[in-house]
Write a structure and sequence with these properties.
20 helices, about 35% helix, 7-stranded mixed beta sheet, about 625 residues, 22 strands, alpha/beta
Length: about 625
């Protein structure tokens, strides 16, 4: 009888599942993530899939992958390189091999490595039979054959049985890393409740994968990653994606404002999940309208805002362009409206399933005329919840449309999130106008609050509060149509002053040494890679300060002083330097830009090398 496999303790692991679009890699990754979250690990994920609904099977463009980084300590990114690659076919191996460090483990489905499949993936010979993989620890497993054998008594046709091979792989990986499977079994039975034979087949395949790991001699070691007990604050936690966090944040904002929530949206990648999620919450007074196009979606949302709802529209970059005229109308009408842009690679259709931060200048200036709009951006998937509440606060308090810039990396990625208590959420209740506001008994719709410059919110049908709306310039106070040059100048300046006066918190700087000369500044989803990179630099003795912007319009009041306090400012962005351009223009600081537009987030190691170079150069320049 052979000895049981040794168990090795690890502090962190990065696993990537890769296969065809139809191989269920996203589902497999989601379930492994859910079990790791339930186990108590800190984690971060990076789903990566093609834009085509069904790319050609077995080809490089058709490869779908899911990367998970889980650890016993605080982590900030989905990892730079996988420690383990599960490759379901030759194309998956070829597409991901370059990302693997020497010594990484590779689990391959040997049944998929037919001559035809190798040719489709561009292999001239099988990499399993030559020296291609000699730098790695390769585990050849006949996943398909083993799955079909495990399901021989299920009554399923062979083709249907083969589809469960992802669950076999998940069972094997669950054994390797001591992940519980009961939650996945419950998930499968719920998912296939109408077809119990499929549910049981997938459960059987999952268990067969676990048993294979336990009985085979191919795996000499299994691994344990302890829970990250010191990372999580007291309370209930769950794993959450950025889009789910945004949707729940919107529901919470409407509840705290005591307003109905209306979403007018047109499906577009990667924003559609928000529409899908909000459609489930009718019990909270949520109404979702899937419009015929982007313009109709925002038009309906603005109409809902006029009617007294928290109006929301969701989109991505191409849809933002189409919504620009109605955003300008919302600026003129001075109504609260949330416009959520889940940025993706562009221009035009671009890279629909990849990430980018290239809509910043469009969000700030992509409208005709002077049409100022507050802009903010969440930093992490979980932060999307708080950002939604913050955006609602600004919109409701200042009676203005607000643009929230998430991106594909945050939208589809996930991390643990502490579920807040209701008492911790801000009070967003508003007061509607209910009576005339002039001594003569008339109502002036543009009579402003002296502190916020917000105009009254008068719900249609309120007796005595009839007023005009529309895109033609309004007279200050009365709201009558006005072509007077002086009035237009005044209204333009008032709308700008209202946005400039929005209360946003000061930016905070992380400078452990207290004497760093280099400041690395980010916004949006660069938070994780920048912070992880800075940790690496500091661990090797380097001095670097970091800060991160949520509020991009208006900037925090202390930002200029912060920038002036450092000899060099470095701004990494997933665009060609849009925030750097704005900072240079606004604060006359020689901001250095580091950019990437590959459709993928920054890797911490590569960013750390850039930061170290700038830190050395800065100190050398100062010394000279």
């Amino acid at each position: 009888m052979s000895a049981p496999p040794a168990v090795k303790q690890l502090d962190r692991v990065v696993i990537r599942f890769a296969g065809d679009s139809g191989d269920g890699m996203q589902l497999t990754g989601d379930q492994f993530t859910a079990r790791s979250a339930g186990f108590g690990n800190d984690l971060s994920t990076l789903p990566n899939f093609p834009a085509e609904i069904r790319a050609p099977a077995g080809t490089l463009p058709g490869v779908s992958s899911f990367q998970l980084h889980f650890a016993d300590h605080d982590i900030l990114t989905p990892g730079d390189a996988p420690d383990v690659l599960v490759a379901m076919n030759p194309a998956a191996l070829k597409a991901n091999l370059a990302d693997l460090p020497r010594g990484a483990e590779i689990i391959v489905d040997t049944d998929a490595f037919s001559r035809r499949a190798l040719t489709k993936a561009g292999w001239s010979a099988s990499p399993l039979e030559d020296s291609t993989l000699e730098a790695y620890r390769v585990h050849p497993v006949a996943l398909t054959t083993l799955t079909v054998e495990a399901l021989k008594d299920s009554g399923l046709a062979r083709k249907d049985a083969e589809r469960a091979k992802n669950m076999f792989a998940l069972g094997l990986l669950s054994w390797m890393y001591h992940r519980p499977t009961e939650g996945t079994e419950s998930f499968l039975r719920a998912k296939f409740a109408r077809r119990p034979e499929l549910a049981e087949a997938n459960v059987t395949a999952l268990r067969a994968g676990w048993n294979y790991g336990e009985t085979t001699e191919s795996f000499a070691v299994s691994y344990e990653v302890a829970p990250a007990e010191r990372v999580f604050s007291p309370g209930r936690h769950r794993n959450i994606s950025g889009n789910l966090a945004l949707a729940l944040g919107l529901v919470a904002a409407a509840e705290r404002a005591a307003l109905p929530l209306f979403l007018g949206s047109y499906p577009i990648t990667p924003a559609s999940d928000i529409l899908h999620e909000l459609s489930k919450h009718k019990n909270f007074g949520v109404r979702t309208f899937q419009a015929e196009d982007e313009i109709a979606g925002i038009g309906a949302a603005l109409g809902a805002a006029f009617g007294g709802s928290l109006g929301v529209t969701t989109t991505s970059g191409p849809g933002m362009a189409l919504k620009s005229e109605t955003i300008g109308l919302a600026v003129s009408l001075e109504l609260p409206l949330l416009v959520i842009d889940i940025q993706r690679g562009g221009p035009s259709t671009g890279l629909p399933t990849k990430t980018e931060q290239a809509d910043l200048l469009q969000a700030m200036f992509g409208r005709n005329g002077e049409a100022p709009v507050p802009v903010l951006a969440p930093a992490t998937p979980a932060d999307c919840f708080d950002a939604a509440l913050d955006a609602a606060r600004i919109a409701l308090t200042y009676r203005t449309p607000v643009l929230l810039l998430s991106d594909g990396y945050l939208a589809n990625g996930s991390e643990p999130w502490r579920i807040p208590e209701v008492s911790e959420l801000p009070d967003l209740r508003v007061e509607f106008a209910t009576a005339p506001n002039r001594p003569d008994g008339s109502f002036h719709p543009y009579l402003r609050d002296p502190e916020t410059l917000a105009r009254p919110w008068a719900v249609p049908g309120t007796p005595g509060l009839e007023h005009r709306i529309g895109g033609i310039e309004k007279e200050d106070g009365t709201g009558n149509i006005s072509y007077d040059p002086a009035n237009h100048d005044r209204m333009v300046r008032l709308r700008q002053a209202k946005v400039d006066g929005i209360a946003v918190p000061d930016v905070e700087v992380d400078d452990p040494s207290g004497d760093a000369r280099l400041l690395v500044l980010g916004w949006g989803s660069t938070y994780g890679p920048i912070t992880a990179a800075a940790r690496r630099v500091r661990a090797s003795g380097g001095r670097v300060a970091t800060t991160h912007l949520r509020h991009l319009t208006p900037f925090p009041a202390n930002l200029g002083a912060v920038l002036d306090g450092y000899d060099r400012v470095l701004v990494p962005e997933m665009n060609l330097g849009q925030l750097a351009l704005l900072l240079r223009a606004r604060f006359l600081v020689d901001v250095r830009s580091h950019t990437q537009v590959s459709g993928m987030p920054f890797k911490a190691a590569a960013l750390a090398a850039v930061i170290e170079e700038h830190a050395r150069d800065t100190e050398a320049t100062v010394a000279h």
